[in-house]
Amino acid sequence: MDIKALIRDIPDFPQPGILFRDITTLLQDAAGFKATIDALVEKTTYLKPDYIVGMESRGFLFGTPMAYQMNAGFVPVRKPGKLPHATYSVEYVLEYGTDRLEIHQDAFPAGARVLVVDDVIATGGTAAATAELISKCGAELVGFAFLSELTFLDGRKKLPNVPIVTLIEY
Ligand code: AMP
């Protein structure tokens, strides 16, 4: 299954100079979507996560079916002001300015094993901030899984030293 062929490239979105990797065409393809989730699950099962953490919003699309298949819980990391209960918050640097991500303080029991899932790792800022949130919660980060990696940005150098699984490289 050529998963890469199901991802659509959109030049200059959301701003000039960005080549956006559009996964809606992959989600539309029943066989392609299933193959993607199966491959992500197969490559991360050995990490034995108790929870999958997905980042708003495309991390939800890949993280929740993985959690279902792996008998793990799912925990969302969201943009500011979306989570209704007490949160931890981490600010991180974007190309222009800063942004913030939040997680529920009571998302995990002590010592839970956590796998972080998102569609793309670009600069690594989002994933690094998520790792910080998991650490604030007192849980154990056991790895990252990304559908694709923009290798020229070397985002993985921002991440803690745990296994990083990717299916596609650009
Ligand atoms: P990062 O720079 O690694 O923090 O990426 C920020 C977020 O933007 C991630 O959740 C990615 O899903 C998304 N993203 C970054 N670059 C792209 C791209 N070229 N195409 C699609 N999504 C992207």
Structure at a glance:
The chain has helices at 24-28, 30-44, 58-70, 125-136; strands at 8-11, 19-22, 51-55, 73-77, 87-93, 98-104, 113-121, 140-149, 164-169. With 170 residues, it is an alpha/beta fold.
How would you describe the overall organization of this protein?
This protein has one domain: Rossmann fold (3-Layer(aba) Sandwich). α2 (30-44) crosses α3 (58-70). The two termini are 17 Å apart. α4 links the parallel β7 and β8. It is an alpha/beta fold. It has helices spanning 24-28, 30-44, 58-70, 125-136; strands spanning 8-11, 19-22, 51-55, 73-77, 87-93, 98-104, 113-121, 140-149, 164-169. The protein is globular. The strands form three sheets. A five-stranded parallel beta sheet has the order 4-3-7-8-9, with helices on both faces. Strands 1-2 form a two-stranded antiparallel ribbon. A two-stranded antiparallel ribbon has the order 5-6. The longest helix has 15 residues, at 30-44. The structure holds adenosine monophosphate. The site of adenosine monophosphate (AMP) has 17 residues, from β2, β7 and α4.
Low-pLDDT segments: none
Count of discrete structural domains = 1
Principal-axes shape call: globular
- The fraction of residues assigned to DSSP E strands is 25-35%
Order of helices and strands: EEHHEHEEEEHEE
Q: What class would the helix/strand composition place it in?
A: alpha/beta
The CATH first-level class comes to: Alpha Beta
| Strand line-up in the sheet with most strands | 4-3-7-8-9
Query: Ions, cofactors, ligands: which are bound?
Result: adenosine monophosphate
Helix coverage percent: 25-40%
